[in-house]
UniProtKB/TrEMBL annotation:
<protein>
    <submittedName>
        <fullName>NADP-dependent oxidoreductase</fullName>
    </submittedName>
</protein>
<feature type="domain" description="Enoyl reductase (ER)">
    <location>
        <begin position="10"/>
        <end position="305"/>
    </location>
</feature>
<keyword id="KW-0521">NADP</keyword>
<dbReference type="InterPro" id="IPR013154">
    <property type="entry name" value="ADH-like_N"/>
</dbReference>
<dbReference type="InterPro" id="IPR036291">
    <property type="entry name" value="NAD(P)-bd_dom_sf"/>
</dbReference>
<dbReference type="InterPro" id="IPR020843">
    <property type="entry name" value="ER"/>
</dbReference>
<dbReference type="Pfam" id="PF08240">
    <property type="entry name" value="ADH_N"/>
</dbReference>
<dbReference type="InterPro" id="IPR011032">
    <property type="entry name" value="GroES-like_sf"/>
</dbReference>
<keyword id="KW-0560">Oxidoreductase</keyword>
<dbReference type="Pfam" id="PF13602">
    <property type="entry name" value="ADH_zinc_N_2"/>
</dbReference>
């Protein structure tokens, strides 16, 4: 089967097309014929060696990708009738495992990590759902703010779930993205930039009780958080505690087999609570270009690799 992998860490050009054996589904697993794999920032982290410490015992080639959409090809022993051969599905994939990630024509994953694709979505749209939405859900659950409280968000994906939770949302946005982020439901917008914390404090002089740092601004956003508040980091930063502020990193791998959570996100996508945005679809062989586009920034949605 065709896959996209790397044997050495580096820039986008280390991504290569490779031929690998078709994987077999073991007990409690399913094999998916992948049609689309979304390209996420964590894929770039893997490509540049950000996950190397967790992959010392994983032989190359390393396959990135946490988001797959496709069709179930085979059920392993012990998989219940929740899933069926021929069913359109999405899967949250952990690329640090020996089997690798979602950048492959066929993948084997735990059945618990697989749910039906949102009704009405095509494969590229469906592939953008789980990793982003599950990360946002985990971040908001970590904050555990009561309905009516205010949360600040850098990076817009958390906005829709926060609004569904009944929170007041302050979001940052680049000038060309203001209408898009407002459409997600943000109550207040501030300009993106190194002074984002000052802009948030201008709106809320006492700071916000919780902030989700989706754009990896780290120290720059700490001053926006009220004394005793919580900053949730999505890229692993554990920052210094100041003024009683708790900095908590969250890792989506911790919910990769939480089928109930993944199914809830799928239903929210079907109801329009979560929107699915595709910026561009590229052939899988253009994975290096997909990574370059992501690193350049300014995308409205995900770049998706087509394995169909």
């Amino acid at each position: 089967m065709k896959a996209i992998g790397l044997s050495t860490y580096g820039g986008p050009d280390v991504l290569r097309e490779v031929e690998l054996p078709v994987p077999e589904a073991g007990p409690g697993e399913v094999r998916i014929r992948v049609h689309a794999a979304a390209v996420n920032p964590t894929d770039v982290m893997m490509r540049t060696g950000g996950h190397a410490a967790r992959m010392r015992d994983v032989p190359p080639p390393f396959l990135p990708g946490m988001d797959a959409a496709g069709v179930i090809e085979k059920l392993g022993p012990g998989v219940d009738d929740r899933l069926a051969v021929g069913q359109r599905v999405v899967a949250l994939v952990l690329p640090t495992r020996p089997e690798g990630g979602a950048y492959a024509e066929q993948i084997v994953v735990p059945a618990a990590s697989v749910v039906p694709a949102p009704a009405g979505s095509d494969h590229p749209e469906a592939s953008t759902l789980l990793m982003n939405a599950a990360t946002a859900r985990l971040a908001l659950d970590t904050l555990a703010l009561p309905a009516g409280a205010t949360v600040a968000v850098t990076g817009a994906y958390t906005v829709e779930l926060a609004k569904a939770d009944g929170l007041t949302v302050v979001a940052d946005a680049a000038p060309h993205d203001r209408d898009l982020v407002r459409g997600f439901g943000a109550d207040h917008l501030v300009d993106r930039g190194t002074d984002v914390a000052e802009r948030i404090r201008a709106l809320l002089p006492d700071g916000v009780p919780g902030l989700v740092d989706g754009s990896d601004q780290r120290e720059e956003v700490v001053p926006a958080v009220a004394d005793g508040g919580t900053l949730v980091e999505l890229r692993g930063w554990q920052g210094p505690d100041e003024h009683g502020i708790t900095v908590t990193p969250v890792f989506v791998a911790s919910v990769a087999t939480d089928t109930a959570l993944l199914n809830t996100l799928r239903r929210q996508a079907e109801k329009g609570v979560l929107s699915l945005h595709v910026a561009k679809v590229l052939p899988a062989s253009d994975a290096a270009e997909a990574h370059r586009l992501l690193e350049a920034g300014g995308l409205r949605g995900r770049v998706v690799l087509d394995f169909s």
